[in-house]
Specification:
By secondary structure, this protein is α/β, with parallel strands linked by helices. The chain is built from 15 helices and 10 strands. Helix content is 35%, strand content 12%.
């Protein structure tokens, strides 16, 4: 007897296995975050074209086209858990003539599992090098040994710079700091020399190392479409507390530089991020003002999703209704500056919802194509 999830999925389509790859710290390659789809399609040591059409890759594509989704987690995938995948018939009957919708329709009609076209989206997460501690994740600064970084350069940089040269979106960072990574710095330099400028790079950074000099040395002009900067504070004191050994004064010139790039239209999106914690929640309105001061296009506030303490009253997750400062947070949230269109406040409900923050959001459910189901 089919479960409700299985019945719902039988008519659905996910584009990730047909247009996206994601690299992992263990050097595996997946179509999605490993928790959503545990099966790897290959390794960084494989030729990229071979990994893209490996037997496992083709089997996963078959499972999507036949509607069994047998390699996908019903619980962890937000597109499945949130019932956010389009029907195959909705794609086939869509009147939108975008290249993506036409491509998905051709795949559905043909049942094709071997693809000549390389992925249009990639999320590169195989180097977790960082230059700061991250209290939200409980991580410390880390750096690959030179031998390991050199090996990654050798197996990855030139093959993948060519393989992804025509990709529409390449996300780097999020779990590590790309500008603290010798390997990612070398990849960016190789990629920018190999690919035509198409604003494909989507960079996630703490911005402490992304100076104007680094931008010019890597020749990032024309290659970066969006930059997302994790800041988490509006005052020097709180910034120093959350970034031990770092100072807001180090960051500000780099934020102003990104604002300058945005005014020049050299980048399309410059977003600053703020994880809401007990230490910083009173600074939320001032953070919006700081973002506007440096020229950011928007602000994203996110709920703390790290380790939760047994005593909720004393945890850092101030959005927990049991927290002693929960009511104080509700008063802060009433500030009109937080209701502006350039401000996004992620889910602050009593139970944090499973969210897609992987860079896969705009492909699996295809919201960009306007296909509903």
């Amino acid at each position: 007897m089919d479960r409700p999830d299985d019945t719902w999925l039988r008519q659905r389509f996910c584009s990730n296995p047909f247009d996206r790859i994601e690299t992992q710290p263990n050097q595996d390659i997946h179509f999605c975050p490993a928790a959503w789809q545990p099966a790897a399609i290959g390794s960084l040591s494989d030729d990229p074209e071979s990994a893209w059409n490996s037997p496992k890759a083709r089997e996963i594509r078959r499972s999507i086209l036949e509607g069994d989704f047998s390699h996908c987690s019903r619980l962890e995938c937000p597109r499945i858990a949130g019932r956010d995948l389009p029907k195959r018939e909705a794609i086939l009957s869509s009147k939108e003539m975008s290249a993506a919708v036409a491509w998905y329709g051709e795949i559905i009609n043909s049942g094709r599992t071997r693809l000549e076209k390389p992925p249009t989206r990639a999320s590169l997460g195989h180097d977790l090098s960082s230059n700061t501690a991250c209290p939200s994740r409980g991580t410390k600064p880390v750096q690959l040994k030179k031998y390991d970084a050199d090996r990654l350069d050798w197996i990855f940089n030139e093959p993948y710079a060519r393989f992804l040269a025509k990709a529409d979106r390449i996300t780097i960072g999020g779990n590590g700091e790309p500008f603290a990574s010798r390997h990612f710095l070398n990849f960016l330099k190789t990629y920018c020399a190999e690919a035509e400028p198409r604003k494909a790079l989507d960079l996630h950074t703490n911005d402490l190392l992304l100076t104007e000099a680094v931008w010019n040395r890597l020749d990032l002009w024309g290659h970066v479409g969006s930059v997302h900067v994790s800041v988490d504070a509006a005052t020097p004191e709180t910034y120093a507390e959350l970034r031990p050994g770092r100072h807001l004064g180090q960051l500000m010139p780099n934020l102003y530089f990104l604002g300058h790039l945005r005014r020049l239209k050299a980048v399309d999106t410059f977003q600053v991020l703020f994880v809401i914690r007990q230490e910083n929640f009173t600074e939320m309105p001032d953070f919006v003002r700081l973002a506007r001061q440096v020229g950011a296009t928007g602000v994203l506030f996110q709920r703390f999703r790290g380790q939760r303490e047994a005593d909720a009253c004393h945890s850092v997750d101030v959005a927990d209704p049991r927290h002693a400062d929960y009511e104080a947070l509700q008063l802060i949230l009433e500030d009109p500056v937080l209701e502006a269109p350039d401000v996004i406040i992620d889910d602050l409900g009593p139970t944090p919802q499973r969210r897609d923050v992987s860079g896969a959001r705009c492909s699996g459910g295809m919201p960009d194509q306007g296909v509903q189901g």
